[in-house]
Amino acid sequence: MSSIVVFGAGGTAGSRVTAEAVNRGHRVVAAVRRPEATSYLPAGVHVVTGDATSEQSVLELAPDADAMVLAIGGGEHGLWLAAARNLVTTLRGMPDAPRIIHLGGGSTLLTPRGTRYLDEPDFPEEYRPSALGQAEALDYYRSSADGVRWTYVSPPPLEFHPGERTGHYRTGGDQPVTDDQGRSVLSYEDLAVAIVDEIEQPRHENTRFTAAY
């Protein structure tokens, strides 16, 4: 059994990671900004007020954690970089520091031409600020996260929706995992499976991976 802190446990992705981890018998701390709005989380989850951009929150929750999942959503452009930087700088040098699992953006994956999906001419403008923010977070881990253990997880760039938990998926690196029709598809539920699998059996430390069917 691991002790897992989930920042953003009340969101679409974070709630599914929380449920998956609890169902496997892990101890889960849901760190959210509004604990009163998380009554839908499964029994056994310890809900606390927490903020991934707060050094104090990380200091309070890190000592008992094996992993800290960053599954925050929304917010301004710089939110993901601020959270990544705060976790890295706070955990660096801490004895037995928890591993960081950052749920990042699929738009940071590379097209067959080697360009990022977020740089494509037809990329929706309304999603560009958050995509750029997630890209900055990934660049930060790659360039400045020495001294900590981290993993950046990218869902498919386009077809990623709530759905069914099948327990099956395939993993890749910087390009989407595609099926025989060239589609990269995954449910939030199965991304949660992939994340908890990675916590239980680390295969992508200090790198990024993606998952799809």
Give a structural overview.
- Helix content is 29%, strand content 21%.
- It has an 8-stranded mixed beta sheet with strand order 3-2-1-4-5-6-10-8, sandwiched between helices.
- With 213 residues, the protein is α/β, with parallel strands linked by helices.
- The mean pLDDT is 95.
- α4 links the parallel β5 and β6.
Summarize this, please?
This protein is an alpha/beta fold and 213 residues long. Helix content is 29%, strand content 21%.
Structure keywords:
single chain; 213 residues; alpha/beta; two-stranded parallel sheet; 5 helices; 29% helix; 21% strand
Average pLDDT number:
95
Distance between the termini: 27 Å
The rounded Rg comes to 16 Å
What string, H for helix and E for strand, traces the elements in order? EHEEHEHEHEEEEHE
Number of helices: 5
Strand content: 15-25%
How would you characterize the largest beta sheet? 8 strands, mixed
* Low-pLDDT segments: none
Which structural class do you get from the secondary structure elements? alpha/beta
The total beta strand count reads 10
| Order of strands across the main sheet | 3-2-1-4-5-6-10-8
Question: Tell me, what's the shape?
Answer: globular
State the helical fraction. 25-40%
Please outline the helices and strands.
Blueprint: E1 3-7, H1 12-23, E2 27-32, E3 46-49, H2 55-61, E4 67-70, H3 79-91, E5 99-103, H4 128-144, E6 150-154, E7 159-161, E8 170-172, E9 185-187, H5 188-200, E10 207-212
Parallel strand pairs: 1-2, 1-4, 2-3, 4-5, 5-6, 6-10, 7-9
Antiparallel strand pairs: 8-10
